[in-house]
Amino acid sequence: MNPVTFHAPQASAEALRLAAGGAAALIAGGTNLIDLMKEGVMRPAALVDISNLPLDGIDATAQGGLLLGATARNADTAYHPLVRSRYPLLSAAILAGASPQIRNMATDGGNLLQRTRCHYFYDIAVPCNKRAPGSGCSAIGGLTRQHAILGASEHCIATHPSDMCVALAALSAVVHVSSQQGERRIDFADFHRLPGANPERDNTLLPGELINAIELPPAGQFAAHSAYLKFRDRASYAFALVSVAAALDIGPDGAVRAARVALGSVAHKPWRVPAAEDLLVGQQAGSTAFEACADLLLAGARGQGQNDFKIPMARRAVVRALEQAAAGTIDNMHAPADSAGKEPL
């Protein structure tokens, strides 16, 4: 590992001063960054540890939403009573990711910034436009089982690996960031970016910006009808081949009043198409409407050969996740609620 200067500021102003210009890497849980440094993929000259900053709160907002501090641990977030009751979709997504040990260490802000698990990105002996811009993409024509079927470019076909971010996309979260120039809010749909000609940029953060919190708008109408579905090569501690975050607001007549659907591990960012969700509104919650939604969500999907299977898999996953959401569960992990909405024994 290369020599690195370590700072542990006690105040946000000091952290922003140290991070200004973007030469230093911010670190909290370090569950991805340390791995990248060990592999030689990232070689920051300085680390700014933000663990001492007061950014670990999980608090209700006056508008009925929730504010997740950037350094709140993933496990604390998943098991927080307000998250479980108001946003069971988010709780289920976090618990589907990583291992208990990693969730106890990883932070909410760090989850947004984790980098692709593309094999070629981690292998510094081969070209990779994301790691070394302009060097080429070794994944194209290579081993592509886990790679993108949507939104890819001729420069990069990597996918974003997060489970938490798929739920945050479906819940229309907002990311609060600050820098020495001030504060700003970024809609989650605009936070991560597609690769285009600059796959080295995973997101729209500017150099020197610090994530302070993630805001969840009120979403109580989805709490009783949401589901997170993850397909992977083994039951534990594996990144998704395809994942789906689905949430429905269903009226007494069985018709859908509002819908949210996001796909994970199929693109450079969580994949959401509002027009596909709009197809469900006013329709009876059932397979016909769900299949139409899946078709539009996956319009333009294209495989790389070895990952062609992900297209039909994603279609079936969307339909199944919507079916599970419509059935209604208390926490997305157990049996459907009974007609009175009580958790089954």
From TrEMBL:
FAD-binding PCMH-type domain residues: 1-221
Molecular function terms, GO-annotated: FAD binding; oxidoreductase activity
SMART domains in UniProt: CO_deh_flav_C (SM01092)
This protein's UniProt keywords: FAD, Flavoprotein
The organism's place on the tree of life at top rank: Bacteria
A Pfam family annotated for this UniProt entry: FAD_binding_5
Protein name stated in the entry: FAD-binding molybdopterin dehydrogenase
